[in-house]
Design goal:
mainly alpha
Length: 90
């Protein structure tokens, strides 16, 4: 999964600076449209994240299940490492 670009501050800063310099600037509408587009793309990307449709209780339950699976697999891996501690002459 690729990362979602949620860094809006530089774009907002550019918009504010453009407004401060010249309130009639032609850059402002372009930059506002760019911000709006970036916000929309971010919303769409966030909506596709797994688990976003779950409520807090369901997310916590899923987290607990995954944590338990991690603990179980770690224990199994440790048991396997301990059993396979064979030394070869060499």
């Amino acid at each position: 999964m690729s990362e979602i670009d949620l860094n809006f501050l530089p774009l907002i800063y550019d918009i504010i600076r453009s407004i401060e310099k010249d309130s009639q600037s032609h850059d402002v509408p372009t930059k506002l449209a760019e911000l709006k587009s970036k916000l929309q793309k971010s919303r769409e990307a966030v909506e596709k994240l797994p688990g976003i449709d779950l409520n807090k209780t369901e997310q916590l339950k899923q987290l607990h299940i995954l944590q338990q699976q991690f603990i179980n697999k770690t224990e199994l891996l440790q048991k396997y490492k301990n059993k396979c501690n064979i030394e070869f002459p060499g």
